[in-house]
Amino acid sequence: LSRISALTVDDLRGPIVVQAYDEPGTWNWLLRQKGVKKEWNGSDQIGRPVQLEKAPQGGSIAPFGVVDMTVPNVETRAQFTPKMYAVGLPLSIQELQRMSGELAAADYMEHRTRDCVTKMMDLLDGTNGIHGDGTALTTDWVGLKSLLATDQTSGTWGSVSRANSRWRAKVTDNGQVTGDVLANLRTTATLLEDGRDQAEVVITNRLGRNIYESKLTATLETDPLVIGSRGRSAMGDAGIGHLAYRGIPMLVDVNFSLIVGSNTAWHFLNTGGGNYLNVFVHPEADMRFLGFNESEDQLLLKNKLIWHGVFSCWRPERQGTVEDGPAS
User: Is the dihedral of CA 249, 308, 19, 33 positive or negative?
Assistant: First the structure.
C-alpha cells in the first residue's frame, strides 16, 4: 500500500476527465458551449422566473397623457431539482500488493480511474441523464425525453404547466415516412428561427445521420466531385464527413434515446448562449473523488466518484425535434 500512498486518483482524474469531455455526445457538446455550465452552491431546487405572458400595458401616448400602469401577470417560477450520481471505485488490497513497483501500481490505478470516469460519462450522457425523462428512477434528473415529449399540451416542464404555448417545444411527427424527412426538418428548423436566433446543433443517432446523408447524396448523383470525409475534394468519394442542416452541425450520439418510435429522430437544441439551456453543478461534486477508505470487513480500499447537479431549460419553445423517423 505504501507504493500508492503518494498516488491519488485526483492527480490522475484531471487529464482523464479532460479527455472524456472531448469525446462526442450530447452531454459533452452542452458543456463545451459558452455560458451553459454554471456553479450551484447548494439548495433544494434551482429556480428562475419565466415570463409566459407579454406585459399588458404600453402604447403610444398623447402629450400629458396618462401612462398605463396595469399590474402585469405574476411571473411564473420554473424549478429544477439537482440529483446526485456516484460511481464506486474499489481497489483490491491483494491486487495492489502484487504490483511490482510504483509504475505498475500507477498503471493499475489509472485504468480503474478511467473506468469510473467512463461510467459516469455514460450515466450523464444516457437515459439516466441528458437523454432521460426521470421516470425510470426518481433519483435521475429530467432530460430531453421529457423536454421534447410528444405531448406538449399537458404535463409540466420545470414544474411549470405546458398549458401556455410559450412553454412548449416544437415537435414534428415524421410518422416513419422516408419521403417526409427533409420537409419535416425544414418545418422544425423554420419554427425555431427568430432572426439570427436558431438551433445550434441537431442531435441524432447513426441511422438518422445515414438517412439524412442518403437524402443529400441523392441530389449529388450527377456530380461525382464532393467533399470527402477528410475535408478535401476527392473524385468518386460519396462520403460526407461533417453533416449540417442549414448550417447547423449534425451530431451523432451513440447514447441517443428516442422519444417515440423505434428508429430515429432529430433533436434541435439552442443554448441561447447559456440563457436557454444550463447545466448546474456543485463545485465540490463536479466529477470529484471523495478519497480512499479501508473497508472494515473486506480487503478493499473504497473510493467514490460523484457528480451533483441538474440539466435545465428556461426556453422550451426554442427547442424542437422531428420524431418517429423511418427505418431506412
Answer: positive
Q: Report the DSSP pairing between strands 266-269 and 201-204.
A: antiparallel
Whether residue 6 has pLDDT greater than 50 = no
Angle in degrees, 0-180, between the axes of helices 9-21 and 102-124, rounded to the nearest 10: 40
User: Which amino acid belongs to residue 74?
Assistant: V
Alpha helices in 224-327 (DSSP H): none
Residues 142, 310, 27, 162, Cα dihedral to 10°: 40
Closest C-alpha among 266, 276, 274 to residue 244 = 266
Residue 36 corresponds to which cell in the numbers above? 451553459
Dihedral, 302, 21, 192, 140 alpha carbons, nearest 10: 0
Check: CB of residue 93 under 8 Å from CB of residue 1: yes
Cell numbers for 255: 447514447
* Continuous segment of H or E residues that includes residue 113: helix 102-124
Residue 156's contacts (CB-CB under 8 Å, 6 or more residues apart) are 162
Q: What is the pLDDT of residue 249?
A: 92
pLDDT tens for 235-280 read 444 455 578 888 899 999 988 888 877 789 999 999 999 999 999 9
Q: Measuring CA to CA, which residue among 226, 219, 147, 157 is closest to residue 182?
A: 219
What is the model's pTM? 0.85
Distance CA 103, CA 3 (A): 9
